[in-house]
Design a protein that fits this description.
Layout lengths: L2 H10 L1 H18 L4 H26 L5 E3 L4 E3 L1 H27 L6 H17 L4 H19 L6 H32 L4 H7 L5 H17 L9 H7 L2 H7 L2 H15 L6 H22 L6 H21 L3 H26 L2 E2 L2 E2 L9 H4 L1 H15 L5 H15 L3 H27 L11 H15 L3 H14 L4
Antiparallel strand pairs: 1-2, 3-4
Length: about 475
């Protein structure tokens, strides 16, 4: 490898290198602070700045078009750019939401922001993976940081249980992913996506088995049924800002990676995997819709909502087309906007005694905190896909892609599951506006309230947001596969 080619390769990985080196520098800086709370006050904003720099590097430092690095193991294309901007932005918002919570809950440790940044490095590698080994490296780098984040509150039994469950089940899914990758390599003799694509034009039975295991491993990462069993417990047990992070950026990274794996190396074998993805989509939508109906904890309700919405994202992948890919990107970004707003309101659910997490605790929010009530109403309607919120357009794009692919039966099931799911979103809104106040919330932190209100505004008023996301998503995938 010549010096010029090495420089070109490192340039393509500039966002990840900036984040990785910056995280190590912040770790060293945090060690030298004598006061841990003071270190957290410095490292938190520094982590946000670092993610913004990584976002800018992805947008401006990396050459336009499609380019590969390290022998084709990593690719930087418009799809990777779109995904990294969304992921780094969501990670920065997760740190901003976490800072007041960690301070109030006396969990202010500087490692939090560093772990989020390192997870973002793994996610950036995931969406740029163009090789089975690169794919696995990105998945594991992301997962190891997330395991620690889930158990970040080490004094809480619930958080420790959440971290342990996530780690054990995550190790199982990683084993399935690695076994599937080894089968694919065994039957194709290659790990690069381009070489696998040639062999997949006439797929063998062994290759299909390998693909199924890869799908199962990645389905765990997006909490798709029947690999969703970890999600409700981990969402409930993890600190609330960690749950907010889990519900946004990692979902985007894993779903884009799944789409890239299926459409690039196995695009010619779409007849073999469309049925599998469609079944997983139906199961996810059903589990999400019916599982949330009886939930009283707002974080568990959001967990089942996440499972259901990943089912809609899989409907877009089932289309196995360019239209399905841009519909997937648009849906995920619009979904993340609403979810960030929802968790902003959940983080504002603090009384003089501490955090509360029950749906009934939102009763009377319209009288005590009308701004938060309007924000939560908007994001609930948006996540539920009610016309004409931005979330409605996300589902509309997904349904359009599925209809173009001739999957009318899948669209009908998705529409029916949306009707069922609307029941628990409307229940939250009913409690907010018609319930008798049961808890008196203290004033939320400025950052938390601002993010919640802006996300609520974007979900309800800024319908042009959907048009902008649509144009950017479509331009990111045109002619890609």
């Amino acid at each position: 490898m010549t010096a010029s080619s090495l420089t070109a390769d490192l340039t393509l990985l500039a966002p990840e290198l900036i984040l990785a080196i910056g995280a190590m520098a912040l770790l060293m800086a945090g060690v030298f602070f004598k006061d841990e709370a003071r270190a957290a006050r410095f490292i938190g904003p520094a982590g946000v700045v670092l993610l913004v720099i990584g976002l800018a590097a992805a947008s401006y430092l990396v050459p336009a078009g499609v380019a590969t690095a390290f022998g084709g193991a990593f690719v930087f294309d418009p799809l990777a750019l779109f995904s990294k901007v969304a992921i780094f932005g969501a990670a920065a918002l997760a740190i901003l939401l976490a800072m007041p919570y960690l301070r109030d809950e006396r969990l202010a440790r500087f490692e939090y922001a560093i772990l989020v940044v390192l997870a973002a490095v793994g996610m950036g590698m995931m969406v740029s993976a163009n090789d089975l080994i690169a794919m696995y490296m990105g998945v594991e780098l992301q997962s190891l940081a997330l395991y620690v984040l889930a158990a970040f509150n080490r004094d809480s039994l619930r958080a420790s249980e959440a971290g342990l469950k996530y780690f054990v089940l995550g190790a199982l899914s990683s084993g399935m992913l690695l076994y599937g990758a080894s089968l694919v390599y065994g039957f194709t003799g290659a790990t690069g996506f381009a070489e696998i694509a040639i062999a997949a034009q006439e797929p063998s039975v062994g290759l299909i088995f390998g693909l199924v295991f890869v799908i199962c491993g990645l389905a765990f990462k997006v909490s798709a049924a029947p690999f969703h069993m970890w999600t409700p417990d981990v969402y409930e047990g993890s600190p609330t800002p960690v749950t907010a992070f889990f519900a946004t950026a990692p979902k985007m990274a894993a779903m884009v990676l799944l789409a890239r794996v299926l459409l690039e190396p196995f695009g010619a074998a779409s007849d073999q995997w469309v049925q599998v993805i469609s079944i997983i989509a139906v199961l996810s939508m059903a589990v999400g819709a019916f599982g949330a109906l009886t939930q009283q904890n707002i974080k568990r309700l959001m967990a089942y909502s996440s499972i259901g919405n990943m089912g809609y994202a899989l409907v877009a992948i089932s289309a196995a087309s360019e239209t399905g890919l841009w519909a997937l990107l648009a849906f995920l970004v619009l979904y993340m906007i609403s979810v960030i707003g929802a968790f902003g309101v959940i983080l504002a659910m603090r009384t003089a005694e501490g955090m509360v997490e029950q749906v009934d605790d939102l009763a009377g929010l319209a009288q005590s905190r009308p701004g938060l009530a309007w924000a939560m109403t908007g994001v609930m309607f948006s996540i539920g896909g009610l016309p004409f919120m931005v979330g409605f357009f996300g589902k509309l794009f997904v349904f359009y892609a599925a209809l173009q692919a001739g999957l009318l039966w899948l669209v009908i099931i998705a529409a029916l599951m949306s009707v069922v799911a609307a029941a628990y979103y409307l229940r939250v809104v009913k409690v907010i506006w018609f319930g008798e106040p049961t808890a008196r919330f203290v004033n939320p932190a400025f950052t938390t309230g601002t993010i919640a209100n802006l996300a609520g505004l974007a979900s309800v008023v800024l319908v042009p947001v959907a048009a902008l996301v649509f144009l950017w998503a479509r331009g990111s995938v045109t002619g890609l596969f």
